[in-house]
């Protein structure tokens, strides 16, 4: 570590507001959806949560969560609702509510939490949660993630990095959102082979870090685009050199760009923090998961940006945005020669 060897930059927390939303999600169609997309084993706590709450599928809090899933909101957006709630009262802070926030959802979540006695479940599973917390702390106690992210997004002196292990749902996806001066990543443990339960967070620290850095980078990328509207508009005019199958999977420009950018940034972080072998392993899996082959070219372009950043030409990646598509096209063409 480069900052304070005795103080990890990423602090691992267990927040009941996030656990509450995860428990509500367990009663929607989401568990079946994620298994249909990619069958995998889930953590014991995910199974225990569904069993504990099995008679509450028609609760209004669950029905609202289902409606949100069927809207255009991302899981990041939905779980960011936790930032609007105080605790333990679970009352929504009006000034913090996003425009999509369902009316009275906080009241229904409060009833869900208390009437179903979720605290009893969490207390019974406390050892599992503390074990996951300790595993995550061991996995995330290295590197200088904040300084790395600042090279792309600019100085963030007051920003604190937080991570929450997620033993319930979603069991395959990580989420990220900002909570005032805190940047949160919420990730399940890494999926194991077949139907085996997931691996511990510290079984492969590089894989855990990949999920966390990816979640942070996606949140910060959205904010960066908002801060640079003209550059973002110019960037969107340049068609990204990706195959039609990739476009079909990610029809929106931001989603296409975010996949390229976030996977590239994550790969560079892994190489700098762990090794080229770890970065290569991640790159191969990411390209297979997302269905594109341009990641080596993306990494070349991002490293070119970092070189210019180090020379003082660009303060943040926002200034480089308009040139990204063309630079990626040129890099991909050179690699094909």
Explain how this protein is built:
By secondary structure, the chain is mainly alpha-helical. 56% of the residues lie in helices and 6% in strands. It has a four-stranded mixed beta sheet. Strand 3 and strand 4 (182-187) form a beta hairpin. Helix 10 packs across helix 13 (253-273), helix 13 runs antiparallel to helix 14 and helix 13 (253-273) packs across helix 15. The model has no long low-confidence stretch (mean pLDDT 94).
Short structural description:
By secondary structure, this protein is mainly α.
Beta percentage is 5-15%
Measure the end-to-end span: 40 Å
Strand/helix succession: EHHHHHHHHHEEEHHHHHHH
What portion of residues is helical?
55-70%
- Unreliable stretches (pLDDT < 50, length at least 5) are none
Numbering strands along the chain, what is their spatial order in the largest sheet? 1-2-4-3
Rg over C-alpha atoms, rounded to the nearest angstrom: 20 Å
Largest sheet: 4 strands, mixed
Tally of helical segments: 16
| Nearest-integer average pLDDT | 94
Q: How many strands in all? A: 4
Structural class: mainly alpha
| Outline type | globular
Task: Indicate the topology.
Blueprint: E1 10-12, H1 16-25, H2 30-37, H3 44-52, H4 60-69, H5 75-79, H6 105-115, H7 118-124, H8 126-139, H9 145-153, E2 160-165, E3 175-179, E4 182-187, H10 205-227, H11 229-237, H12 244-249, H13 253-273, H14 276-290, H15 295-310, H16 321-336
Parallel strand pairs: 1-2, 2-4
Antiparallel strand pairs: 3-4
Helix pairs in contact: 10-13, 11-16, 13-14, 13-15, 15-16
What are the salient characteristics of this protein?
337 residues; mainly alpha; 16 helices; 6% strand
């Amino acid at each position: 570590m480069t900052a304070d060897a005795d103080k990890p930059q990423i602090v691992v927390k267990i927040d009941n507001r996030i656990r509450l939303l995860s428990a509500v999600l367990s009663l929607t169609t989401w568990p079946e959806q994620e298994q249909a997309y990619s069958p995998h084993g889930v953590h014991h706590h995910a199974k225990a949560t569904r069993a504990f709450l099995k008679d509450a599928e028609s609760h209004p809090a669950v029905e609202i969560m289902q409606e949100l899933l069927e809207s255009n909101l991302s899981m990041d957006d939905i779980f960011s609702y936790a930032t609007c709630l105080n605790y333990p009262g679970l009352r929504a802070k009006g000034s913090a509510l996003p425009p999509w926030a369902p009316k009275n959802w906080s009241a229904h979540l409060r009833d869900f939490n208390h009437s179903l006695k979720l605290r009893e479940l969490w207390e019974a599973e406390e050892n599992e949660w503390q074990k996951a917390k300790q595993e995550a702390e061991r996995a995330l106690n290295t590197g200088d993630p904040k300084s790395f992210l600042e090279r792309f997004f600019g100085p963030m002196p007051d920003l604190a990095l937080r991570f929450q292990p997620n033993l319930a749902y979603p069991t395959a996806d990580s989420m990220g959102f900002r909570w005032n001066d805190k940047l949160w990543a919420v990730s399940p443990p890494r999926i194991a082979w077949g139907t085996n339960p997931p691996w511990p967070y510290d079984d492969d620290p590089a894989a855990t870090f990949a999920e966390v850095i990816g979640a942070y980078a996606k949140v910060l990328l959205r904010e960066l685009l908002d801060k640079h509207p003209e550059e973002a508009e110019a960037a969107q005019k340049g068609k990204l050199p990706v195959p039609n199958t990739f476009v079909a999977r990610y029809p929106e420009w931001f989603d296409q760009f975010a996949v390229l950018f976030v996977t590239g940034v994550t790969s560079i972080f892994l190489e700098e923090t762990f090794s080229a072998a770890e970065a290569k392993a991640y790159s191969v899996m990411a390209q297979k998961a997302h269905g594109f082959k341009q990641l080596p070219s993306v990494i070349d372009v991002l490293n070119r940006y970092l070189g210019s950043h180090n020379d003082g030409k660009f303060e943040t990646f926002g200034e480089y945005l308009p040139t990204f598509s063309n630079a990626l096209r040129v890099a991909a063409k050179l690699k094909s020669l």
